[in-house]
Amino acid sequence: MINKKKAAILVIALVVVAIAAITIMFKGQAEGQGVSAQPAAPAQAQNPEPRPQPAVVGQPMADFTLPVYQGGTLTLSSLRGQNVLILFPRGYAAENYWCTICNYRYVELAELEKAKKIQEKYNVKVLVVFPYTQDVVKVWLEALPGQLETVRSTKNPADPSKLDEKGKIRMERFRQLFPEDYSLAKGEILAPFPILVDGERTLSKKLDLFRNEWGGGKVDQNIPSVYIIDANGILQFKYLGQNTVDRPGYDYLLKVLEVINSNKKPGLGTGEELPPFTFAPVLRLKGRRNR
Is 112 helix (H, G, I), strand (E, B) or coil? Predict the structure, then answer.
């Protein structure tokens, strides 16, 4: 009986020694490889991308502050008491190629402001937001004169009879998309409205407008969009483009502002009829996207 007890004790002692030896062996290997025997501290989680928070018509527009290309910063709530029309042009349509339609529409609005003083007439502040840094916005402004000249020369070639079929289709398409002839002198900077520099894409991503690919263009850009906020800070109208030509014309947007200023909700049987939703007709070139 005593021998059995001694044998059991001996077995237990051998097991303990074996476990200790194995532990020391693995610890030595870990230290030899520069690995700490202590559990590694969990890695710091990187800041996740902010979740989109699309603006809801009839609800207050979330406040934001962005740098202004012309200088300083602008906070949306500082414009309380005025309507606010926010334009999000597409920006680039392809690498090193600005969206022609968005740029034409920008110049069209600038000319409208110059001729009719719409900001004063409709108690509205126009803001333009780009998802680019200050230096890229500068490149965009400097490119406007040349792009307008390209539009003009495409619409009015020296000898249309020498164009091939594709060239004739392009000419007619440009004439329909860009009915007015606008021009800027080389080096002229057209910036009648505050241009907000959303270089970190905080606002563009929050509204879920920023894309790396859209409309056939694989480049950093925004979905062309329009937001109208009333003098109390309530979003009354928004439109997110499905392509570059489907956004409402300025006659429509100004009518929306008239309805807002009359303290009536647009399109809800108030007696204020909005004009038909119109945009330029489109002729598509085979294999090409509208830009």
Answer: helix
**Cα gap 246→248, rounded to integer Å:** 7
Cα distances (Å, whole numbers) of residue 208 to 205, 219, 220, 233, 240 = 5, 16, 13, 20, 10
The first and second tokens of residue 84, run together, are 């606010």
Bridge partners (DSSP) listed for residue 273: none
Note the helical H segments in 47-183.
100-116, 118-121, 134-155, 165-177
The per-residue pLDDT for range 210-263, each reduced to its tens digit, is 999 999 999 999 999 999 999 999 999 999 999 888 889 999 999 999 999 998
Give the residue from 242, 251, 238 showing the smallest Cα distance to 277: 251
85 alpha-carbon distance from chain centroid:
15
> What distance in Å separates the CA atoms of residue 110 and residue 118, rounded to the nearest whole number?
10
Contacts of 87 (CB under 8 A, 6+ apart): 106, 109, 126, 127, 128, 129, 225, 226
DSSP β-bridge partners for residue 196:
68, 129
pTM of the model: 0.77
The 8-class DSSP code of residue 68 comes to: B
Which residues, in sequence order, are CB contacts of 65 under 8 Å at separation 6+?
A: 73, 74, 75, 76
The β-bridge partners of 94 are 97
pLDDT value for 269: 47
pLDDT in tens, 141-167: 999 999 999 999 999 999 999 999 999
The two structure tokens encoding residue 241:
């483009």
